[in-house]
Amino acid sequence: MIQDGTLSIRVNGEHRRVRAGMTVAELALELGLEPAKVAVERNLEIVPRSTLGHVMVEDGDEFEIVTFVGGG
């Protein structure tokens, strides 16, 4: 963690700085995504959707986040 209270992470290959103490669900919301409609991989492991509101973002995490798109 940097002294300014932020973490350095990667989301879909892009470097981002986010505030320390946020959950994966809060990260999704910050990215403009609905946590109930995303699939999240954190450090090469799938994060169950039911735990997104409990799993904390940590410095150095690497995320792949994909959204579900409905259609027909």
Note down, in words, how this protein is organized.
The protein has 72 residues and is mostly beta strands. The protein has one domain: Beta-grasp domain (Ubiquitin-like (UB roll), Roll). Helix content is 10%, strand content 36%. The protein has a five-stranded mixed sheet with strand order 2-1-5-3-4, with helices on one face. A hairpin with a 2-residue loop joins strand 1 and strand 2. It is globular, with a radius of gyration of 12 Å. The model has no long low-confidence stretch (mean pLDDT 93).
Give the gist of this structure.
This protein has 72 residues and is mostly beta strands.
CATH class: Alpha Beta
CATH architecture: Roll
Largest sheet: 5 strands, mixed
Can you give the mean pLDDT? 93
Strand % is 35-45%
How is this fold's topology laid out?
Blueprint: E1 6-11, E2 14-19, H1 24-30, E3 38-42, E4 45-47, E5 62-67
Parallel strand pairs: 1-5
Antiparallel strand pairs: 1-2, 3-4, 3-5
What descriptors fit this protein?
single chain; Ubiquitin-like (UB roll); 5 strands; 10% helix; 36% strand
